[in-house]
Design brief:
It is a single chain. The protein is α+β, with helices and mostly antiparallel strands and about 130 residues long. The protein has two domains: about 30 residues; about 80 residues, N-utilization substance G protein NusG, insert domain (mini-chromosome maintenance (MCM) complex, domain 2, Sandwich), CATH 2.60.320.10. The chain is built from two helices and seven strands, in the order αβββββαββ. It has a four-stranded antiparallel β-sheet with strand order 2-1-7-6, with no helix packed on it. Strands 3-4-5 form a three-stranded antiparallel β-sheet, with no helix packed on it. Strand 4 and strand 5 form a beta hairpin. The chain is elongated.
């Protein structure tokens, strides 16, 4: 009676798993140390209520926190250097508060009951680019 080799992983499997782990590590290091470091463009936070722009805040130029209040609802938004978030809201589920800080261009937080949204955009957000065309 012959006993077969019961190795579950073959040499090719080990090489494939090792290659995937190395590639994932390279991508993680690239994202953490290089891509984030070069995100130094203008960050403009646009606060909208009922589809109308209420305020635009340049997040790069802030030295002290700025508090923005929405009058009809008990909503407070805090803008700090490089970031912005909903600080207080009377909405029932508080999902807007759970979204946390917005720090990158394209980040968005919305309070649906009050129809208020905060979006971070770049300096030239009115120009047409390949994605919006």
């Amino acid at each position: 009676m012959k006993v077969k080799n019961s190795n579950i992983l073959k040499k090719g499997d080990v090489i494939l798993i090792f290659s995937i782990l190395i590639l994932a590590g390279i991508i993680f290091i690239w994202k953490a140390y290089f891509v984030e470091k070069f995100d130094v463009g203008e960050k403009i936070a646009v606060i909208m209520h009922d589809g109308k722009n209420i305020e635009r805040v340049n997040l790069n130029n802030l030295n002290n926190p700025v508090f923005i209040k929405i009058k009809d609802y008990n909503i407070v938004i805090i803008a700090e250097k490089g970031r912005i978030r909903f600080l207080q809201s009377d909405c029932p589920d508080k999902i807007c508060l759970k979204s946390g800080y917005l720090t990158k261009c394209g980040d968005k937080a919305v309070c649906v009951p009050s129809r208020t949204q905060v979006v971070i955009s770049g300096k030239d957000d009115d120009e047409i680019d390949s994605l919006s065309f």
